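Hi D.,

Good news: the full-assembly prediction came through. Inputs first.
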Amino acid sequence: MSKVSSIKRNRAIGNTAIYIILVLISVIWLIPFVFILLQSFRVESTWQVGYVIPKQWGFKNYIELFTQSSFFNWYKNTLIIALCNAVLQTMMVMMMSYALSRLRFKGRKLLMNAMLILGMFPGFLSMIILYYILKSMGLTQAGAVPGLILVYFASSGMGYYVSKGFFDTIPKSLDEAARVDGATRFQVMYKVILPLSKPIIIYTVLTAFMAPWADYIFASYIAFGTSSGYNVAVGLYSWLTKDMINDYYTRFCAGGVLIAVPITILFMCLQKYYVEGVTGGAVKG
Amino acid sequence: MADRITDKELKYLHLSKPARLLFSVWNFIIDIPNKIWHLICAIGRVFKNFGLAVAREATDIFLTFKNGDWKTKISFVVMGFGSLARGQILRGILFLLFEIVFIMYIVLFGGYWLGKLTFNNLTATTSVKTTQVVAGIEMEVDSVIYGDNNLQIMIYGVLTIVFILCFIYTWRLNVKQNKLSEQILRSGKKLKSSKDDLKSVLDDQFHKTVLALPVLGIVIFTVIPIILMIMVAFTNYDYNHTPPTNLFEWVGFENFNQLFTWGNGTSTFSATFGELLTWTLVWAFFATFSNYFLGMLVAMMINKKGIRLKKLWRGILVLTIAIPQFISLLYVSKMFSDEGLINRFLINNGVIQTALPFWTDPTWARVMVIVINIWVGVPYLMLITTGVLMNIPSDLYESARIDGANPVQQYFKITLPYMFFVTGPYLLTSFTGNMNNFNVIYLLTGGAPYTLSNSAGRTDLLITWLYRLTVTNNDYKLAAVIGIMVFVVVAVISLVVYNVLPSMKNEEDFQ
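Then the structure:
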């Protein structure tokens, strides 16, 4: 056997091994989702059972989700929060990162250092205080939806890193050229920089839209005990507590599917922008 | 700098790579006393500079008053008078309005709260039984007598202090304005009109326009709550002292003393804190580096030449980012529970007799959270490292191959140094991020098994413990102390790494 063909054979073996590993990885990463999907169609029992493929298929869990629980209300709450947050948080983040990246002013470094230090405090250290402040405005329990929106977007300017990294890559000469032509700073932003920033705006909107779907911490604390103020995470979490799980396990799976499917489709459509944002943000630190 | 090499640097260049890291860590350690001295000096300088700045401002204010005309002099009391008198209507009105609002606030509102901030002579809300005649019948009725509320006092007190600081700043601005206007007028130029002022909002002062809202949001929803929580750490605010019925008091450093008293055995607050701090650091280490290396490995496999369907493999992993964590993690958590899918399946098929203690045995639980965290984190790292790996110049590999380096050598000599160099800062942020990784722990185990004191569990991070102390135990003072300690730990780690990192950066071994 010649040397070349032996190298070829080795490479083929190596590639086969990699394919096997990749298939294994794919299976491991998909298993929970496949299981959730299968169990959401199970009719015969609401318990956790020792098998995955239902013996009796049906839409019972999905129907009950809407007829016998507040799921629709939770879903609506979360959707409202997510949409508002997507708009407001994007605005805040863009303003902050634009100013820090493309404008030079006294105290800029100070502001950045202050936010770096503030970021080192654990996020919900001040949960109780926020709760108290929101309560005094009537934005807890039943009023949790506007309260949560406020909490999410108000200090979101601190998450400026990724978009600042993006703005930093746009050449300064563009600004200067526009300024020479007599544009004000506002016009520079509005007419020159923002049209170039579509990827980062989409990234910010996407992450801002997705975050509220997964937030349990603040949502559970602010909506404390009032079902009408729950978001999906708090609502579904309550179904998996010890005394509920046996009656609601399959319904949880059905709810999970209904939440995951639209978000996943949206995410997959905008995946390109997400990947750009994540990789760009990490490399610049 | 580059043309002079010190002995230290020369020694450094002679070392092998692991030795270099040790060398820089060692240098960092022996340099600590020096650094502390520098820190003390720096703090001293800050105070000195602050004192000098105050003195400078004071002289400037005094000189402005002494040399100023009557318009300026009146402005010292009536803010904005100078601007109004000189025709800058918009500025003048804004200054004046601010002063009126401020004075009204302090008189009607702020002064009252500020006076109560010492928590002396407060009365709690109580209910008293009184006999009243209701519809002709004598009845005993509970009537509530409203008293003070510590938390309210603290919030409004701090708000008032912040407002006062704002006022002082604005007043100073007003004085400066007058001085500047006088100078401009004296040199025969024109002052800016209100129209110019409005225009500058979108031009010269544009940064203020864009920053106003985000910064205000951060101050109200992050800075002030953090200040208040730091204050809570110096009170005895807990389940026994919950205003308005049971008021709390200032207790000084008592809560922190608890943290540093190593008394009787393992049941103390300090022992639990030590245990959880250790586990938090161990967790952060494993969570960060397991994800990092496995993510890199997966990325390299997908990127390897000759592997097809790259998009499919990547897409499957990315899919898991899209699905909200609380669904997948809660599901996985239940899957491995005593009653869950895995245990039932194994018992039904006679593989085991009793359920495997995935979440009930401390060691099992700790290994499980780290393993499942790999499942959570690898997709992100795969994305991040894919980008960086593709940026490594391919001629580096080519020349290595010509020199006869095998893939393993290539990995350790080229890929890894390059990766560390580029993603160093990211590793640091992801380490501190993992220390505060609430979701994974809380949704998987909730901190269980709870075998430690102060209702802490074996898989609890400091952050989940803080959450439980706040929500379940209402032990706010201890939660505040833990929060401050988390801050200290994160700050120290960041400081140390940033100090060691530059020497690693200078290496540029991959060139």
